[in-house]
Design a protein that fits this description.
heterodimer, A: mainly beta, six-stranded mixed β-sheet, B: about 110 residues, seven-stranded mixed β-sheet, globular
Chain lengths: ~120, ~110
């Protein structure tokens, strides 16, 4: 079974600085998708960014980018120019295109932005 | 923006009572998931449907939990009887199978069983 590990329960960063959240996963499949979700205090789960495993190019969405290392099974999220509104729980998730196509989540990283 | 609607947003109930949580998926989405979020276990998959058919509910305690999708616009998760250990946030998410675009989550139902 696939597993997703986020080794940093908490992170903090100064406003306007850059922070990187780590995620590793375990799978024997070659085709899959990876996601980062943000959960602010409102508890709404918001999709931040998506990466297809067959693409070598790292995904970017404005201030959010990923470093996808397929061989190392690593998928980190970089937030540039951190803003107070970025404070949230961040979840890394894995999805296989076969069968259930269900999301498997990591335990989450709580990000604090210091003004 | 299209959204997944969950009701109620909060629910406090006494142990032993029946609880029903509802979810309206995004129109056109054919896959619906129920997740439970707790501090200890994180986000756990309870059940999911595709084209209204239940495909996997192995994550649910069968003796007290049931999930149904009576029509394409409504998914329900029922707990009977409820127990304090069921206290959690329950999320519904919907998506389109094969799109791999990620799933859209509702705002969740925070359930407290006292």
């Amino acid at each position: 079974a696939q597993t997703v590990t986020q080794s940093q329960p908490e992170m903090s960063v100064q406003e306007a600085e850059t922070v990187t959240l780590s995620c590793t996963y375990d799978t024997s499949e070659s085709d899959y998708y990876l996601f980062w979700y943000k959960q602010p205090p409102s508890r709404q789960m918001i999709l931040v960014i998506r990466q297809e495993a067959y693409k070598q190019q790292n995904a970017t969405e404005n201030r959010f980018s990923v470093n996808f290392q397929k061989a190392a099974k690593s998928f980190s999220l970089k937030i540039s120019d951190s803003q107070l509104g970025d404070a949230a729980m961040y979840f890394c998730a894995y999805l296989t295109p076969q069968g259930a196509q269900k999301l498997v989540f990591g335990q989450g990283t709580r990000l604090t932005i210091n003004p | 923006d299209a959204r997944v609607t969950q009701t109620p947003r909060h629910k406090v109930t006494e142990m032993g009572q029946e609880v029903t949580m509802r979810c309206q998926p995004i129109l056109g989405h054919n896959t619906v998931f129920w997740y439970r979020q707790t501090m200890m276990q994180g986000l756990e998959l309870l059940a999911y449907f595709r084209n209204r058919a239940p495909l996997d509910d192995s994550g649910m305690p069968k003796d007290r939990f049931s999930a149904e999708m009576p029509d394409a616009t409504l998914a329900t998760l029922k707990i009977q009887p409820s127990e304090p250990r069921d206290s959690a946030v329950y999320f519904c998410a919907s998506g389109l199978a094969g799109a791999f675009a990620g799933y859209t989550f509702g705002s969740g139902t925070r359930l407290t069983v006292v």
